[in-house]
Design goal:
homodimer; alpha+beta; Ribosomal Protein S5, domain 2; Alpha-Beta Plaits
Chain lengths: 325, 325
């Protein structure tokens, strides 16, 4: 019997309007729609090997055998794919990231987008990107956005077939630069996977979700019109809204570190002084500082002059799912 | 003509359930009720001199002539008192604090409580503490609470006569210790006086207010039962809720400094390790760390071992309004 394999590459994305909380956890229907930019230069490469002789799934990440919890999550996701495509073979998965995990760069987004795509190639299926977006959503909500390049909106939807992401503008539309400021490589105490389940324990989550449609509209408009100032205001507000919910959930999630606050305040001050900069922060301490191509070198110098900055990754609008073959 | 004078002393207070935003700014009716502890050891002493010969009010704080903005605010408050008591003389005011202003210790609370009380003595009036609480509310909302000793609740009310504070337990009820951690003496960019007007620009303020009745009930219960763990959870949640609103108002108010985040996380960790500690933070970077009489020395040592801690003031449940004569 021939051993089948398939490979795919996906990049993480950073959301301007963030996904936090599910209205249906089982179907992974998010409480609100979200809007992101796929990040170039950062990638997860995944190969899936299928073999009827395997008695269980296995997972190697960056050359190391994964622990039971990541394997369990991946295996559960594979079960969904197997059921969807009427398959039964177990899979051996090899995945490599070119960026550090657990730092607020959404590694689960690129991981599950690449895994969904690689799996379909291994079984000889060629679903379109909408179907891939729906499928990868079951692994990690934000993976649905990493299927697409450039600027991407994920519609919350009322049922599974309506909850997928689409590109709203290609990478060439706007040459934004994302300076990803690494303040620490420590693993998070509570990952975003577990955090989503806490969202509804915050007395503020409902209000955040209710207000989301107008933020999505403003954010989409800002991107389509390349309106930096509008995007700055709405992205910082949305980031603060998500962290407000995290800070007030039970138990509270305090993802910020001292350096995070320093960067938030510095970036706001720089913008008041006339620099085109804004921040957005995922479920971790690191700060994404957006700026323009023209100003990114001077902004980078300012960032590196601050204490507690360990490293800065430079990213721009990037590609969606792709295949190395 | 005899020059009349009156003096009073008031202490600041720290709220477990915080006042943020007004439902009626003109009448200073707060959006939600609040609950606080009056702080001993810290005080504002104020003397009001009345003289028909004065052509305008004057204000000396800590030996220095106050600038036009503080004088304008005080003079506007005196107008309310003059109208209420059918008076017309201008006032020369001397006020002294034994604690640094602009550090998140609510100096306006003790200032306006002391001013209201000193003024009534100067005109020979002896209103009861409920009336004093109502009157001082017009100077600063939280001043209504500083009239009373110990543990104090301010009822929001629907009209001015219903919006006053009352003691719910005397200072002797519970020997809590408040370690007030000074991380910086810089004056705030936006004081709480201006900040209240921004509360309703946050998409989260309504939800914070709606949820307040249950927090007030839990907090009152925690205090009456001396339930430290319940008070810890509810006070930290309430503090985070207020800062969540601040962070998401337009413009956002980021009162926290890097040291604030470090202290918030350290205090939570210490509590998880078994120490009776919790934090609450007013409109400033400094952190109030509550603990018990037994543990306060070991907590103090832990606090002083952290970086960015400039000073720690130690306070306990304190007296309300009092008269030096």
């Amino acid at each position: 019997m021939v051993k089948e394999s398939g490979s795919a590459i996906a990049s993480p994305n950073i959301a301007f309007i963030k996904y936090w909380g599910n209205k249906n956890s089982e179907l992974r229907l998010p409480s609100n729609g979200s809007l992101s930019m796929t990040l170039n230069g950062l990638e997860t490469r995944t190969t899936v090997y299928l073999d009827p002789g395997l008695s269980s799934d296995s997972l190697i990440i960056n050359g190391e055998t994964a622990g039971p919890l990541p394997l369990q999550r991946v295996s559960g996701f594979l079960d969904i794919l197997r059921q969807h495509f009427n398959q039964k073979d177990c899979a051996a998965i090899e995945s490599n990231n070119n960026f550090p995990p657990g730092t607020g760069i959404a590694s689960s987004a690129s991981a599950f987008a690449a895994l969904a795509a690689a799996y379909t190639r291994a079984i000889g299926e060629f679903p379109d990107n909408r179907e891939l977006s729906i499928l990868s959503r079951f692994g990690s909500g934000s993976a649905s956005r990493s299927i697409h390049s450039g600027f991407v909106e994920w519609y919350a939807g009322e049922k599974s077939s309506e909850s997928y992401a689409e590109q709203i503008a290609p990478p060439s539309h706007w040459n934004l630069v994302d300076l990803i400021i690494i303040t620490g490589y420590a693993h998070k105490k509570v990952g975003s996977f577990a955090g989503h389940a806490l969202a509804d324990t915050s007395p503020l989550q409902h209000a955040r979700v209710q207000n989301c449609r107008s933020r999505l509209d403003s954010c989409r408009t800002a991107i389509l019109n390349r309106d930096f100032e509008l995007l700055a205001e709405i992205a910082e507000l949305d980031s603060n809204l998500m962290h407000a919910v995290m800070l007030t959930s039970s138990p509270p999630l305090i993802y910020w570190e001292p350096a995070t606050i320093l960067l938030m305040k510095s970036i706001r001050t720089w913008r008041e002084e006339g620099l085109p900069v804004f921040y957005t922060i995922d479920a971790g301490p690191n700060v994404h500082c957006f700026t323009t191509e023209q100003e990114h070198e001077s902004v980078l110098r300012k960032i590196k002059s601050l204490p507690s900055v360990q490293d800065v990754l430079i990213s721009r609008p990037g590609e969606g799912i792709r295949y190395p073959d």
